[in-house]
Design brief:
This protein has about 190 residues and is mostly helical. It has one domain. It contains 9 helices and no strands. Helix 1 runs antiparallel to helix 2, helix 6 packs across helix 7 and helix 8 packs antiparallel against helix 9. The relative contact order is 0.10.
Amino acid sequence: MILAASLTPLLWLAWKWRRHDLGINRIEFVARYTGGWTLRFLLLTLAITPLRRIPGLRDLIRFRRLLGLLAFFYATLHALHYFAIDAQWNREVLWEDFTVRRFFIAGLTALTLLVPLAATSFDAAVRWLGARRWQRLHRLIYASAIAAIFHYIWQGKYISLTPLLYAAVLALLLLIRIVVAVRKAL
């Protein structure tokens, strides 16, 4: 059920694409749409751990892996849309974007950090790496989320409220993690 609900945004986008109902700049619409869903799934994934501490929500942990893979899925769609539709696999455009434009560098960093997480998201990877190393590796999600927030903030010509709201949610989730870590240390 979670997977079906999580694919609803993609189905909605496909329906709007087929109907030519994406506005004047459909390339920008698709980029923002898939990027927004990537961030939502990243933040949902990060929210699972603090939420499961609330009585009655302990079982949410079962969905964290799926949500993380959905974040990677939407990030991959976002990147593929850029490479294939926006930049059209043009090497000069890609080189310039990934060496000069900081928001592209931040986006590529966010995606690159998600790759090893998706590649090691199965149970055998935990056994192969060992639980401690696997857990350390999967902390890359924090750096990926931070890079994704910067990607979103820097892509605009002005700072809008939406990326700042995402940044505030991420800051709150990181603050909760820090408070819990300090409490454990004491």
